[in-house]
Structure formats: C-alpha cells, structure tokens
UniProtKB/TrEMBL annotation:
<comment type="similarity">
    <text>Belongs to the short-chain dehydrogenases/reductases (SDR) family.</text>
</comment>
<dbReference type="GO" id="GO:0016491">
    <property type="term" value="F:oxidoreductase activity"/>
</dbReference>
<keyword id="KW-0560">Oxidoreductase</keyword>
<dbReference type="Pfam" id="PF13561">
    <property type="entry name" value="adh_short_C2"/>
</dbReference>
<dbReference type="InterPro" id="IPR002347">
    <property type="entry name" value="SDR_fam"/>
</dbReference>
<protein>
    <submittedName>
        <fullName>Short-chain dehydrogenase</fullName>
    </submittedName>
</protein>
<dbReference type="InterPro" id="IPR057326">
    <property type="entry name" value="KR_dom"/>
</dbReference>
<feature type="domain" description="Ketoreductase">
    <location>
        <begin position="7"/>
        <end position="186"/>
    </location>
</feature>
<dbReference type="InterPro" id="IPR036291">
    <property type="entry name" value="NAD(P)-bd_dom_sf"/>
</dbReference>
<dbReference type="InterPro" id="IPR020904">
    <property type="entry name" value="Sc_DH/Rdtase_CS"/>
</dbReference>
Length: 251
C-alpha cells in the first residue's frame, strides 16, 4: 500500500543509518523524498539506488544557508513539503573532564541548533496538517555516564517536540519525537571511543534491553512512517518510545 502517495518528505541525515532506512521506507510508500547530509558520495549512492522521486542535497545542518538551500531546493523540485524528519545527529563519548568547548559546541550545533533552524526554515513551506518528526533518544531521559552533552541535546529535542507542537497547532502541524533506543548503524563507530570501549559499552546495553538485541534502522523507519501518515492524526507533542524495552528496564 502506498501510504505516502503524493507526499513530499525531507529527511536530514538521509544518507546513512536511521535516516537512510526512513528514506527507503517513505520512498517505497510512494513519497517524493529529499535527503540531506554532508557526504556527497553517500548521497549520490542513495539517489541512484532509489531512482525517481528522489533528491539528494549536500547540506550541513550547522549552516543556516545550507538548511535554507535544502528546503528551497526541495520546494522548487517537488512543489511542497508534507513531512519533515529532523534526524541528523552526532554523539561523542566523553566524560565531563574531557569535553572541550569545541566538542560541546559541535554537538549542540548539529543536534539542537541544526534541528531548531531546520524546523524554522521549513515552516513557510510546510502544509497545513504537515508532520514534523524529531529524532530523540533514551539518553534524553536516563543518566548514562560519558554522554552528558549528547544526552542534554536529546533532552532539548524532547522539549522542542512539546513547545513547538503548541506553537504550530493553529496550522494543524503535528510535532512528535521518536525516543530511540540502541540501533545498529554507523553511529557507534563515530563516538570517538576505542573499539574495545564500544564493544564493552554495547554489550552492557544489550543486557539492559528487554529484547536483548539492538534494533534495526528499519524498525525506526516504521515508527517514522506511522508519525508521517494520518494514522497518527491524534498524536501530537509527544514521544513515541522505540527502544527494545530499555527505559522500562532502566528507570
Ligand atoms: N543509532 C542509535 O543507537 C541511535 C539511538 C538514538 C538516537 N539516534 C539518533 O539517530 C540519528 C541518526 O543517527 P544514526 O544512528 O542513523 O547514525 P548515522 O548512520 O551516523 O547517521 C547520522 C546522519 O547524520 C548526518 N549528519 C551528521 N552531522 C551532520 C551535519 N553537520 N549536517 C548534516 N547531516 C549530518 C550524517 O550524514 P553526513 O555524515 O553525510 O553529514 C548521517 O546521515 C541521530 O540524531 C542520533 O542521535 C541514534
């Protein structure tokens, strides 16, 4: 069934991991899909794989001019914007003593400023009844050590889902976040920790998960699809938890 037939979706960070799986799902459901990211080769690979109804735009979410370019290009190509998945994000594994001003600013710039201004710049083009989906995390709720900055950025995302849904309700734009648990993507290779540290950390996490396994990006894409369609028409300003049972086994 083509549940997004005729719809236009913009996915930041759509060239890898969760964003890529969501781009494939939305495209398979009939949507016109624009993806962004910085890695031009990865963007081109996805564009070639998905084929028609796909736009790949090189854009860094920390640059307002790039965000504006991505949004206006999507609008110019597909004529409208129905779904925005503000997904691009990064994490560094650093105890507080090791966090530098540069790494703090980088995480805040990508994960908070990037999301905020992606939404702000998309607003003039979003249809009444559009869906904005934010990429949140279990880290926004729990206190795992070594990821204080990342966790703070995701707590900010959950807050944005609540406040912006109020601000945008007169336009019938729904804003929701997905509270995501551990998902197998290149994300963990980019934490800046040694492979040994990452292995230890991921094994510990696996034990905390009720399902005793990491999720697949496709399992998050299905949640994003629900939030993108009118199947979720009464879901607004909230968080949908897709975490393999991590939170209930932690809090
Ligand atoms: N994997 C997990 O366990 C997990 C759990 C909870 C939440 N999340 C969240 O899920 C989101 C996607 O992560 P992932 O797991 O799919 O990891 P990923 O495969 O590393 O994807 C990250 C995406 O963000 C893009 N990105 C990073 N910095 C960017 C920038 N400055 N401008 C534009 N795009 C940028 C990357 O593209 P380029 O490198 O080409 O720029 C890439 O497409 C993140 O927000 C992450 O916090 C992940």
């Amino acid at each position: 069934m083509n549940r997004l037939e005729g719809k236009v979706a913009l996915i930041t960070g759509g060239n890898s991991g969760i964003g890529l799986a969501t781009a494939k799902e939305f495209h398979a459901q009939g949507a016109m899909v624009a993806i962004t990211g910085r890695d031009k080769e990865a963007l081109e690979r996805v564009r070639a794989e998905l084929g028609e109804r796909t736009l790949a735009i090189s854009a860094d979410v920390t640059r307002i001019s790039d965000i504006e370019h991505a949004i206006t290009t999507t609008q110019a190509t597909f004529g409208k914007l129905d779904v925005l998945f503000a997904n691009a994000g990064i994490a560094r594994m650093e105890p507080i003593e090791q966090v530098t001003e540069e790494s703090f600013d980088r995480s805040m710039d990508v994960n908070v400023k990037g999301v905020f201004f992606t939404i702000q710049k998309a607003l003039p083009f979003l249809n009444e009844g559009a869906s904005i989906i934010l990429n949140g995390s279990v880290n926004g709720h729990v206190g795992y050590p070594g990821v204080s900055v990342y966790s703070a950025t995701k707590a900010a995302i959950h807050s944005l889902a609540r406040t912006l849904s109020s601000e945008l309700s007169d336009r019938k734009i729904r804003v929701n976040a997905i509270t995501i648990g551990p998902i197998t993507t290149p994300f963990f290779d980019k934490l800046g920790a040694s492979s040994q540290e990452i292995q230890g950390f991921t094994q510990q996490l696996e034990q905390r998960l009720l399902l005793k396994r990491f999720g697949n990006p496709e399992e998050i894409a299905k949640v994003a699809l629900f939030l993108a369609t009118m199947d979720s028409s009464f879901v607004v300003g909230t968080e949908l938890v897709a975490d393999g049972g991590l939170l209930v086994n932690t809090i």
